[in-house]
Amino acid sequence: MSDHAVLHVKGRILVGPEEVRDDLWIVDGRISYDRPVGARDIRTVVGWALPGLVDAHCHVGLGPHGPVAEDVAEKQALADREAGTLLIRDAGSPSDTRWIDDRDDLPKIIRAGRHIARTRRYIRGYAHEIEPDDLVAYVAQEARRGDGWVKLVGDWIDRDLGDLSAVWPREALDAAIAEAHRLGVRVTAHCFSADSLPDLVGAGIDCIEHATGLTEDLIPLFVEHGVAIVPTLVNIATFPQLAAAGEGKFPRWSAHMRRLHERRYDTVRSAYDAGIPVYVGTDAGGTLPHGLAAAEVAELVAAGIPPVEALAATTWKARAWLGRPGLEEGAAADLVVYEADPRADVRVLAAPHRVVLNGRVAA
């Protein structure tokens, strides 16, 4: 396909869950719903088209022990692209991945800077590990380094307690989240347990990652404050293995992790039923492979979220939440084409027919 070629996507263009068109044209990397006048060099792709998938919790540039080399980060981003993920909210990474912004063949990334954690209360090599008096300063620093988000670690295992516990005092959270909002950025936090949630939500947090500790009595608080969740169920699936590995040293923590895993689907379904916004995120990077967005959508359906809503959580609604366009007139042509209707069966997402990024067929 030449630089001046026109790509014609024909079949069913899912502009929204109810808005379907028959044709879409791509000229100079942009979407048009009008056939370009005088177009000659036309390539046609047929199928069901969706906006490029969103992974709202992904870590490009992160490996099991911290930052990775650029060639490894590139392979991570390519794995996401091959799976149809074309927009990533990188929910914390110690790597500088700004070079990816200069590559029109790699997914677009919205960064949250580096994780901010309490000293010795997170995975070694991942986060800035600080004390509460420094939280405001580090939030401001990562706000300037990110793309509209900051990532806190809200809870982690307390070795003296032998279980998960909150890591930040309320007054530190109040000041830090207020500073983030003053700077025009949103704040999200890693949270497995319940005890960190009331203070984070009360302090004005915008999103909670994992949210396995969300309980029926906390759900109204999330609804009242408009807090979203990104459940990362493909990551929560690893809890039994983590619990088994920690059983000997931290039996209380292990039992807690098993309980969180056992009720994971009920937790997500209750949140959805109450009206809490739920978005797709995989927690890829670290120990999980990239390219798992389709599997996460299937997990949301297994939890009881209707298929079209689970699909929206990685397409139309997710892009609107992150302030990025979908299949709109004049938008960058980032889309995925499938051979069958993903609204009828979300498992279709696991096998993209074509991936189009910045107007070019990438896969």
How would you summarize what this structure contains?
The protein has 363 residues and is of the alpha/beta class. Helix content is 29%, strand content 25%.
Key features?
single chain; 363 residues; alpha/beta; 7-stranded mixed β-sheet
Task: Outline the structure in words.
With 363 residues, the protein is of the alpha/beta class. The chain is 29% helix and 25% strand. The protein has 12 helices and 20 strands. The chain has a 7-stranded mixed β-sheet with strand order 3-2-1-4-18-19-20, with no helix packed on it. Strands 12-15-16-17 form a 4-stranded parallel β-sheet. The longest helix is centred in the first third of the chain and has 13 residues, at 70-82. The two termini are 13 Å apart.
List the helices and strands and how they pair.
Blueprint (H helix, E strand, L loop, with lengths): L5 E9 L5 E8 L2 E3 L9 E10 L1 E6 L3 E2 L2 E2 L2 H13 L2 E6 L17 E4 L4 E3 L9 E3 L4 H11 L3 E5 L1 E4 L4 E4 L3 H13 L3 E6 L5 H6 L4 E4 L8 H7 L2 E3 L2 H4 L2 H8 L4 H12 L1 H11 L18 H10 L4 H6 L3 H6 L13 E4 L15 E4 L2 E2 L2
Parallel strand pairs: 1-4, 5-8, 8-9, 10-11, 12-15, 15-16, 16-17
Antiparallel strand pairs: 1-2, 2-3, 4-18, 6-7, 13-14, 18-19, 19-20
Helix pairs in contact: 2-3, 7-8
